[in-house]
Structure to design on (389 residues):
């Protein structure tokens, strides 16, 4: 493998990186992945909207269909959903591998495992593309280091984005720590997820129990600190959860990071996609739909740039186009999170009570959208209850 032979190098072999590569046409692409296996370690709850499933290419690995959710405050519960399938639960290790296998069938794409990329400055300005390429990569593969200067570098290296940070393109943003335990021997309604909004157990986000089919669930939360101990406290002491999970046996533990917020996603010949770019719903933490759709835009922009030898500034069209799709929704989510910070359990109780008393569940069922939660939250929390968003 001649690493200098690639037009584009993508750092990160997850769905965002692979789908970006898949959408770069007629140019040589190398995807490097730091782990020895694509899809591991698990860092995701695996709940994906139907739009997300479509954008991902309907990959293998689905283990359950979801029709709605039980939402709990400290003292109230509502059940939203009906017979419509609104999301699917995926085994991410299977899903990510399936996407990578699909992408690898493209003769212009290669995948290199156990390879780390580090940004370096480009001092060679001898060719048209090198003149426009401020960044190169130092790639460490099995202890062997090689410096290379592709025409485009794509940072798809996840929430912490060392590539984006080293180029000073990823600025300081809120970072939540996630902890999750997969558990077996659980008797649960497999059609509905359970979402808990309770500051006694999780201060800065929420807690989930996601059924993975018969007798298996993922239980997890994100918070600003001490997530693992908070999760154990929830499992052992929450009145609803401790009953649901009373016979549960832990079979897998995973951790992850959730970035909230975004900045620019293009700097010279470096482009960011997926979690690296902050293409995440601040309210739910889901990023696969936004990431996959943005990855397709990124691949298209790169193809046009390389094929037509366009000016380097053309790449900024990627930043404009994905933000045209999702910026409004992300901005709404960021504003709503600020409101949530100021809500105590008593306020959340009152919101659920208002929904129950005013028979708004049917309204939510008919108008709710997992990928654009502003459509329902803005109406109920803003217009009907009176919070200013």
């Amino acid at each position: 493998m001649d690493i200098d032979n690639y037009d584009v190098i993508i750092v990160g072999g997850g769905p965002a990186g692979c789908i970006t590569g898949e959408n770069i046409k007629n140019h040589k692409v190398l995807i490097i992945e730091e782990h020895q296996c694509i899809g591991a370690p698990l860092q995701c709850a695996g709940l994906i909207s139907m739009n997300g499933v479509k954008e991902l290419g309907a990959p293998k690995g689905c283990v359950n269909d979801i029709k709605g959710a039980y939402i709990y405050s400290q003292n109230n519960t509502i059940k939203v959903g009906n017979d419509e399938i609104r999301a699917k639960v995926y085994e991410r290790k299977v899903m990510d591998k399936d996407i990578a296998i699909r992408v690898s069938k493209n003769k212009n794409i290669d995948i290199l495992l156990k390879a780390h990329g580090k940004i370096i400055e480009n001092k060679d300005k001898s060719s048209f593309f090198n003149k426009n390429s401020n960044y190169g990569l130092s790639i460490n593969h099995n202890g062997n280091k090689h410096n290379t200067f592709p025409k485009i570098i794509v940072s798809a290296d996840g929430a912490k984005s060392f590539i984006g940070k080293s180029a000073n393109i990823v600025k300081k943003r809120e970072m939540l720590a996630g902890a999750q335990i997969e558990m077996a021997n659980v008797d649960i309604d497999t059609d509905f997820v359970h979402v808990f909004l309770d500051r006694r157990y999780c201060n800065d986000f929420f807690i989930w129990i996601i059924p993975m089919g018969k007798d298996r669930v993922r239980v997890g939360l994100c918070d600003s600190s001490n997530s693992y101990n908070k999760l154990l406290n929830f499992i052992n002491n929450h009145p609803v959860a401790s009953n649901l999970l009373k016979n549960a046996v832990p079979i897998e533990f995973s951790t992850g990071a959730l970035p909230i917020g975004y900045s620019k996603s293009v700097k010279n010949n470096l482009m960011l996609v997926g979690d690296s770019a902050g293409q995440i719903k601040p309210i739910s933490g889901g990023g696969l739909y936004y990431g996959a759709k943005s990855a397709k835009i990124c691949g298209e922009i790169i193809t046009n740039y390389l094929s037509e030898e366009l000016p380097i500034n053309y790449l900024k069209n990627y930043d404009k186009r994905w933000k045209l799709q999702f910026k409004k929704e992300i901005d709404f989510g960021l504003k709503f999170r600020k409101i949530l910070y100021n809500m105590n359990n008593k306020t959340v109780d009152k919101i659920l009570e208002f929904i129950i008393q005013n028979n708004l569940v049917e309204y939510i069922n008919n108008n709710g959208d997992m990928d654009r939660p502003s459509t329902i939250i803005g109406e109920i929390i803003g217009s009907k209850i009176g919070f200013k968003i």
